[in-house]
Amino acid sequence: MTPRAQTVSTHKRAQATRLQIVLRTVRQVPSLLLGGILLSFILVVAFVGPLVVTSDPLDTMPRQARAAPSVEFPFGNDASGRDILSRVVHAVRLDLAVVCIVALVATSSGALIGLLSGYVGGLTDQVLMRFVDILMAFPGFLLALTVTAVLGNNIQTIVFALGVAYSPVIIRVVRAQVLTLREAQFIEAARAIGAPAWEIIIYHLLPNTWSIVLAQAALFLAWAVLDIAGLSFLGLGIKPPTPELGAMTAEGAEHMVSGRWWMSVFPGAFIMLMALTFTLIGDSLRDMLDPRFRK
């Protein structure tokens, strides 16, 4: 067999192996496949939807106010005559961006503090953990609600509030993992050759906590979807007329009694869909990557 033929054969075997790994993963964790399909749909709505639905989400049409779904407006119109389909498409994009930023802020800050607290130990660990205990004494949504009520309801405040509310969870998870790893032989070997603390944390501890961090970050996305919608529903989220799913649901809820269900059902359905998607992905990643939860 020529070298070229051997290379082609090796490449085909590698592709077959990767395909077998994917198929085995799908069989073992079918919820990951479902979550991936739903996530693909959400991404299409967020990034392709605005190119297809060209109407302005802020354009008011008084003559179409509270109009039922039709061929021209498949999701109907809101109280100001705005196209609900256009507003939902843009709201999904906005909410998706905000929840990703929230998860990134909470995960990165929480992982960093957890790594430092677990590795350094001593007084530093005690002080940080007492502060974390104080934060965890308050329900996450109530803490975010208080912060946004004090600092104002804008995107920056929402990201900060939810980041503060979620970070204690990842701090405790990462710290617990680091406490079990810092006395391991490979860490002792790194210390013995004179590796500095920052190198041990970045190159030895962080890679061994990454699976737990990744699974928790996916769950943060689901939490953030519901909490952002809840804040907006209570009037403490993203300010109208900016299209946001929670605010649209709150506005439409006022008209449910009169039979205009479409004003809140469609935005609410996308909130449920996004929360379900990230929950499925987060639970699946936890089952796959965290040995403590493997079935």
Summarize, please.
This protein is mostly helical and 295 residues long. The chain contains 11 helices and no strands.
- Which stretches of 5+ consecutive residues score pLDDT under 50? none
Q: How big is the Rg? A: 24 Å
- Got a strand count? 0
> Average pLDDT value?
85
Structural domain tally: 1
CATH class: Mainly Alpha
* Class based on secondary structure composition and strand pairing: mainly alpha
Q: What is the CATH T-level topology? A: MetI-like fold
The CATH superfamily name is: MetI-like
The SSE string, one letter per element, is HHHHHHHHHHH
Please state roughly what percent of the residues sit in beta strands, choosing from under 5%, 5-15%, 15-25%, 25-35%, 35-45% or over 45%: under 5%
From the 3D coordinates, which CATH architecture would you assign?
Answer: Orthogonal Bundle
User: Helix count?
Assistant: 11
Largest sheet: none
Helix coverage percent: over 70%
Structural shape: elongated
Distance between termini? Answer: 44 Å
